[in-house]
From TrEMBL:
Residues 43-306 form the D-isomer specific 2-hydroxyacid dehydrogenase catalytic domain. GO terms for molecular function: NAD binding; oxidoreductase activity, acting on the CH-OH group of donors, NAD or NADP as acceptor. This is Putative phosphoglycerate dehydrogenase. It comes from Staphylococcus saprophyticus subsp. saprophyticus (strain ATCC 15305 / DSM 20229 / NCIMB 8711 / NCTC 7292 / S-41). Transmembrane segments: none annotated. Belongs to the D-isomer specific 2-hydroxyacid dehydrogenase family. It holds the Pfam family 2-Hacid_dh.
Amino acid sequence: MKAVSLMKLGDLENELKARFPNVDFVFSNGLSDIDDKDRETLEILFGYDGKLDESFLKQCPNLNWIAWYATGVNNLPLEYISKHNIKLTNAKGVHAKQMSEFIFAYILDDYKKMRTSYINQKNKYYDSSLTGSRLSGEKILFIGTGSIAQQTARIANVMGMTVMGVNTTGHTIEGFSKIYPINELKEALQEANIVINTLPETKDTIHLLEREHFECMDHNCLFINVGRGTVVKEEILIEALKEKLIRHAYLDVFENEPLQPSNELYQLNNVTITAHITGNGNENKSEVTGIFEKNLKSILNNNELIENVVNPLNGY
């Protein structure tokens, strides 16, 4: 069995070779580094390269499993993968740890007025009357109740916050005091002080949030998006911020990335921007490789995947 990587893994490469001596591993620097012979003979493709497309997959006639080292699979040629019965797994759960920390970094930055303190520092202005707000008792709503939301909910509960969520059916999730079905999204938004989108991109989530949803939010609401930027049209989000339908937004994802210097979001004073970094973590490669190893062992022993299996038709 030949397994070809889409990225270098450092010391993990020797560990994989030692643990699976019967697997022919080839470690590359990405698509352009994989030669024709390896493309024709590989059975497993693992790692991450944002350039992976249908054209490349057509050159891999023996491919039966893609172990994707990211959580989002929306940019992969999912229709082709499904049609050719190629198995697909992702890195779900790994990024949730650092993403939950980022989410609370955003919240605390806002509630404790850290941005204002920094501005005061730059202006050499000492204001000891500056007063932040407590998180205890605040109502936090997650649009999407997957691994990111669940990890963050644990922290929110420790902070004494009321944790709510929205998912497809309204099914209960441990750690959430209330779950709304997606058809009651407007009602859910009216209840929250903080709204966080953690949804992946699928055909059902693109432009899910419309102007009327921001109108449902309290004008003092904090909106955080670490899911996908396509959940709302950019012009609608800009309107909501300019018209103060919401107080502030922390955005790590955008409808069109990378965000161009001319983008109007840069001009608004009630938005904080990070460059799609909440999923970045030094531990990612090691932890995702751990998932890959479990699945590889199962494939070799039982010809089945046991963790983070993705349905290409659903996108999750």
